[in-house]
Amino acid sequence: MDMSDAVIVNSSRLKSVVWNDFDRVKKGDTFMAICRHCKKKLSGSSTSGTSHLRNHLIRCKRKSNHGIAQYFSTREKKKEGSLALVTINQEQKKDELLSLVNLRYEQEQIKSEPVSIGSNSLDQRRSQFGLARMIILHNYPLAMVEHVGFKIFVRNLQPLFELVTYNKVEADCMEIYAKEKQKVYEILDKLPGKISVTADVWTASDDAAYLSLTAHYIDEDWQLKKRILNFVNVDPSHTEDMHSEVIMNCLMDWDIDRKLFSMIFDSFTSENIVDRIRDRLSQNRFLYCNGQLFDVRCAVDLLNQMGQDALEALCEVTQKIRESIRYVKSSEATHSMFNELVHEVQVDSKKCLCIDNPLKWNSTYFMLEVALEYRKVFSCLRDRELVNMKFLLSDLEWDRLTVITSFLKLFVEVTNVFTRRKYPTANIFFPEICDIHLQLIEWCKNPDEYISSLAVKMRKKFEDYWDKCSLGLAVAAMLDPRFKMKLLEYYYPQLYGNSASELIDDVFECIKSLYNEHSTVSPLASSLDQGLDWQVSGIPGSGKDSRDRLMGFDKFLHETSQSEGSNSDLDKYLEEPLFPRNTDFNILNWWKVHTPRYPILSMMARNILGIPISKVAAESTFDTGGRVLDHNWSSLPPTTVQALMCSQDWIRSELES
Length: 657
Fold this sequence. Notes:
The protein is an alpha/beta fold and about 650 residues long. Helices cover about 55% and strands about 10% of the residues. It is built from 27 helices and 12 strands. The protein has helices spanning about 50-60, 75-80, 85-90, 95-105, 125-135, 150-155, 165-190, 240-255, 270-285, 300-315, 315-330, 330-345, 360-375, 375-385, 395-420, 430-445, 450-480, 485-495, 500-520, 525-535, 545-550, 550-565, 570-575, 585-595, 600-610, 630-635, 640-655; strands spanning about 5-10, 20-25, 30-35, 40-45, 115, 120-125, 195-205, 210-220, 225-235, 260-265, 295, 625-630. Strands 7, 8, 9, 10, 11 and 12 form a 6-stranded mixed beta sheet that branches. The chain is extended. Residues about 65-120 and about 525-545 have low confidence and may be disordered.
C-alpha cells in the first residue's frame, strides 16, 4: 500500500502503552498501526482494539523482550500466572478435578528457571513438572512430547516454553516419583495403627508380569486410606522363594515389615509363598495372634471364581441363548413375530434382549436373566417354527438355567455390596459370606445331580476361603457395635449345629488374646510401665540389673491391676446394649467418637477394620481376566513403569482427599 500521503495521527484518546511502539496513521478513511521496529502494518481502527498489537510485539523479531510486560493492561494482569490456571478457569465447570490438580501444583515449591519478559516470567522448570504430572495423571504416552502436533500446539500456546525431549520428561517423572515417595513414607511412618497389604498381579501387552503391592490403613482421623507401594516387574518362572523375597524386600524398603498386620492374596497365590513371608515376620514377633490373621484371601475374587464355575456349567446353554437372541433380531419379520408372541402369552416385561459382553461375567448374567423372563415366548417359538432350530432350549435346559441363574444373582448382589459401599470396612463381609455359606449347603442338596455337583465344586472353593478368613471376619463383626457377638450366635448354629457353641468360644478366645496383645503395646500400658520404671529407678542402689530382674514383676503388676480394677474395654463394650442399625451407619466415625471410652479396643478396631477383605478395584469387579497395564506404558523400562503407576496413585489419592 502506498503510504506517501498517509498522515500520523496524534490523539489524547490513545492511552494504551502499546502505542509507544506503534504509529497510528490515517490514509483516506482508513486507520493503520505501523510497528516502529519492523514497520509491519496492522489495523489501527478504534473498533479493532489493541490485543493484536500486543501479540505482534511479543513475536516481533526486531523488538527486544525487555519491556514487553508494560503492554499487559490491568485486566490482563489479573489473568496473569499459570497458563494451566487460565485454561482451568475457563473449563472449571467442565472439569473440577483439573482445577484441583493445578491448585496443588501452584502450592509446590519447585526450583525455577525463569525466562524474563520484563516484570513477568515463564517458569520453565515449573511448567516442565506440570507437563510431567499431566502425563502421569492421565496415562499419556511419554513420547507425546515429541509428537509434531503437540509441539505446534505448545509453540502457539506459549512460544517462550522450551520444548522438552522424551528423556527429559522421563527424568522429570522420576523426580516427581522420588518426592512423592518421601511424602508417603512419612505418612506410613507416623501411622497410629498397623498396615494391611494387598498383592495383585498385572500383565503388560508384551506378556510381562508386574506385582502391585498396596498399603491399606486407617489414619489418625479414622479415614480408610490406601496407597500403592510398589509396582515391580516379576518373572513367573522364578521360584517361590524368590517371589517371597521380592515381597519382603519391598516391605523392608518401606520399613513397614514391623507394622504389618495382614496380607491379602488371590486364591492362586501359593501357600508356600504366604508361609515364607509369615515365618519371616513371626521370627521378629511382628504379627498378632501368632499370624492367625495374617493370610487373608480376596472375597470378591472368590465370588468371581464361583460365578465363573456357574457360567462354565451353562456354557452350551449360554451359547444357545446368544443364538436365540441373534435369531430374534435377525430381521424385522422375526422381531415382529416375537413381539406378537410376547402379547399372546402375556409376558409382562419391558426389558430388551441383548447379547452379553463375555469379558464381564455380570453382563452374561443379565442376558440370561432377561432371557428367562421370555421363557414362555421362546418355548412358543420352538413349537411354532417349522425349521428345526437347535439353538432353542429344551424344558430341562430352561429349568437348570433358572436354578443356576439364581446362584449368579446372589453372587452379583453380594459383589455389589462389597464394592459399592461408601465405607468398605471388614465388618460388612461376615453376614454376606455366611449367607452364601448357608446357600451352598442347600444347593448341594439339589436332587438334580448336574446342579448338586456344581454346588459341591463351588463349596470346596468356598471352604478353602472360609478356613483361612472366617476368624478375621468374625472378629471384625464383633467390633461392629450393632452386632458384637450376637451375629456369631445367630449364624454359627445354622452353620455348625451342636458344634456352634464350642466354635464361638474359640473365636472369643482369639478376641481376648488379640485384645491382650494390644493392651501391652497401648499408650496406657506404656505410661504405666514408665511409672513403674521411675519407681524402681528411684530406689537407692538400684541399678540396670535390678530393673531387668523386675521386668516380669512390672508386667505382673500391670496385668493384676487391670483384672482387680474396673472391667476392661472389651468387657464394657460387650456388656453395653447394641447400637441401633441404620443404613447410614459409619463404623469408623463411631470408633473415632468412642476412642476415649475404649482406648485399647479402639486400637484393635483400627487394625482389624482396616483389613481390605476385597482387593478388586471397582472398575474391574466383574472382569473375566486380570488387570492389564495401559498399552502406553507397557513398553517402558520397569523402573519407569513403577514410578508412573505409583506416582499416579499418590497424586490422585491426594486430590481425592
